[in-house]
Write a structure and sequence with these properties.
It is a single chain. By secondary structure, the chain is an alpha+beta fold. The chain has two domains: about 10-50, no CATH class; about 60-145, Beta-grasp domain (Ubiquitin-like (UB roll), Roll), CATH 3.10.20.30. The protein contains six helices and five strands; from the N terminus they run ααααββααβββ. It has helices at about 10, 15-25, 35-40, 60, 85-95, 95-100, and strands at about 70-75, 75-80, 115, 125-130, 140-145.
C-alpha cells in the first residue's frame, strides 16, 4: 500500500482481467469498473476462494453405478465402479494423485494412455486406449500405464 492506495502489482490483478470480470457480472461490454470493484481490501497473506483446496469426494465424481467390478492393473486385482470411464476408476482408486495429475480429461493430451487386453488373452494382443475416453470392462487386464498415471498401492 502506498499513501492509502492499492496498486496492481500488490494484488496481482490486471485491469484487463478485472474489466472482463466486471463485464461478465454486468452482462455488458465497455463497463469501466470502479476502484472498489478492482481491488480487494483483504490482506495479501489471506487466501482467496480460488486458492483454497476443495475436498474431493469420489461419489460426486463418478457416474451412477450399481456394483463394483474386478479388473487387473499391473498384475494386481482391484474393484472399481462399473459404467465409468477408466480415468474416473483410477480416480476412485487414488483420488489425490489422479485429481491433481496432469490430465486434460478430454483426450487431447494422451497422458492417460494405457495398454490392455481382455481376460484370457496374452499381452501380445494389448491395445492402447485413452482412459479418459474408454469405459471400464469387467475382467480387463491393464498391462501398462502412462508414466503420468500414479496409483497408490499399485505403481506409486
Amino acid at each position: 500500500m502506498t499513501n492509502g492506495k492499492f496498486t496492481h502489482l500488490q494484488y496481482g490483478h490486471s485491469l484487463a482481467i478485472s474489466r472482463r470480470r466486471c463485464e461478465v457480472a454486468n452482462q455488458r461490454f465497455g463497463v469501466i469498473p470502479q476502484a472498489e470493484q478492482l481491488y480487494s481490501r483483504r490482506p495479501m497473506n489471506e487466501p482467496s476462494l480460488d486458492q483454497t483446496p476443495l475436498a474431493l469426494d469420489a461419489s460426486e465424481l463418478l457416474d451412477p453405478y450399481e456394483k463394483l467390478i474386478t479388473i487387473q492393473i499391473l498384475g494386481k486385482e482391484v474393484q472399481v465402479p462399473e459404467k465409468n470411464r477408466l480415468l474416473r476408476c483410477f480416480q476412485y482408486l487414488s483420488i489425490n494423485s489422479i485429481s491433481y495429475g496432469d490430465f486434460c480429461w478430454n483426450g487431447e493430451c494422451t497422458n492417460c494412455q494405457i495398454w490392455y487386453h481382455d481376460s484370457g488373452q496374452t499381452s501380445a494382443s494389448d491395445k492402447p486406449i485413452l482412459s479418459c475416453r474408454s469405459e471400464v470392462i469387467e475382467d480387463m487386464v491393464i498391462t501398462k500405464l502412462s508414466p503420468f498415471i500414479k496409483l497408490e498401492g499399485i505403481n506409486k
